[in-house]
Amino acid sequence: MELLHKLPAIEQHLSSVEMKSNYTLSDYPLWTALVTPFDDNNQVDYTTLESLVDAQQAAGNGILLLGSTGEGLALSQDEQRRIVDFVCDLSPSVPLMVAVGGCDLALQLEWVAYCNNKPIDAFLLGSPLYAKPGNVGLTHWFKTLLDASDIPCMLYNVPGRSAVSISPNVIENLSSHPNLWALKEASGDIATFESFRKASPELAIFSGDDGLMPYFAQAGAAGLVSVAANAWPKQTAEFVHRSLAGTFPNLFTTWTDAVNSLFSVANPIPVKVLMHLQGQLSTPRLRPPLTHLELTDTTFIKTANSTILSWS
After folding, report:
1. Residue 119, pLDDT score
2. DSSP of the chain
3. Ordered structural domains, the chain, with CATH
4. Which residues are annotated as a binding site?
5. Catalytic positions (predicted)?
6. pLDDT value, residue 84
7. Which residues of the chain register pLDDT less than 50?
8. Are 125 and 88 in contact (CB under 8 A)?
9. The three-state (H, E, C) secondary structure of 151-179, written as one string
10. Residues making up the binding site for pyruvate
11. Alpha-carbon Rg for the chain in angstroms
12. The pTM is what?
């Protein structure tokens, strides 16, 4: 709670950073890690993708494409380009962030160069997979990508997926880089959040865990990069605003219980199954090795859906 007094300084820092399309970062405390919809032939369903973009626009949420929730690494490079081109051509009224992930630095640099020529507003830079580099290797990896970018970047600490943690030392090493504006913290540990805050007090830190958003907000989080907002765009936006304002704490436990149902098996399986039940997706299909058949009991997500939708 004692970090709440730092919020005005953080917001002032963010308001001075504008993205390529002149969106102000501090205006978007919620970014939806958008799912990638597939049809019955397991090909990208662009008609549904447009509908999903429309839903996020209507809620005023920033859009993250091709993250882990968007199954980015299960898509070919051609599919990734086509998705980015398609969404950019829609000219959404909210900012776009694109994920940069993998383990081949040369390929990531090619991807950054491609996206630099698009009306994209930010990058999400993930840690390299499988290799488990130390602080020197991670610093070099991120600095190389930050140098190559023409737009603000959010680093992504998700040791559960990358098998390596970004340390506060890495953040300290990079804190003065002009393209570093944010960190998505998804280790699930408040103490880790605090250590990043000490390493770079002006860095905007976003919760990468939907269920922890109320607690991260109390510790000075700038916002949320959300899975839940796919299923509940407006309700999640409202809850993020309430969390940042410190209002309606009686709903925090209800929120956490509901969103935890979306992580009963590997993300994005439950949220795609729920969106299919809601009618947002024509099929809950995922790309292998993930499958919707992993979720054998939909009771919990149905209950969560009823709970959250009852707020509106």
Report:
1. 96
2. -GGGGGHHHHHHHHHT-B-TT--BGGG--EEEE----B-TTSSB-HHHHHHHHHHHHHHT-EEEESSTTTTGGGS-HHHHHHHHHHHHHT--SS-EEEEE-SS-HHHHHHHHHHHHTSS--EEEEEPPSSS---HHHHHHHHHHHHHH-SS-EEEEE-HHHHS-PPPHHHHHHHTT-TTEEEEEE-SS-HHHHHHHHHH-TTSEEEES-GGGHHHHHHTT--EEEESGGGT-HHHHHHHHHHHHHT--GGGHHHHHHHHHGGGSSSTTHHHHHHHHHHTS-S-----TT--GGG----HHHHHHHHHHHTT-
3. 2-249 (3.20.20.70)
4. 69, 225
5. 156 (proton donor/acceptor), 184 (schiff-base intermediate with substrate)
6. 98
7. 1-18
8. no
9. CCEEEEECHHHHCCCCCHHHHHHHCCCCC
10. 69, 225
11. 18
12. 0.91
CA angle, 293 then 296 then 301, to 5°: 110
pLDDT in the model for residue 20:
56
pLDDT value at position 200?
92
What the block records as the tokens of 1 is 């709670």
Q: How far apart are the C-alpha atoms of 247 and 244, rounded to whole Å?
A: 8
Which token pair is 90?
């829609």
Reading the block at residue 301, the tokens are: 């997500």
Per-residue pLDDT at 24: 82
- Collect all residues with Cβ–Cβ distance below 8 Å to 256 and sequence separation of at least 6: 211, 212, 214
Where in the sequence numbering do the catalytic residues fall?
A: 156, 184
Residues 6+ apart with CB under 8 A from 247: none
pLDDT of res. 4: 37
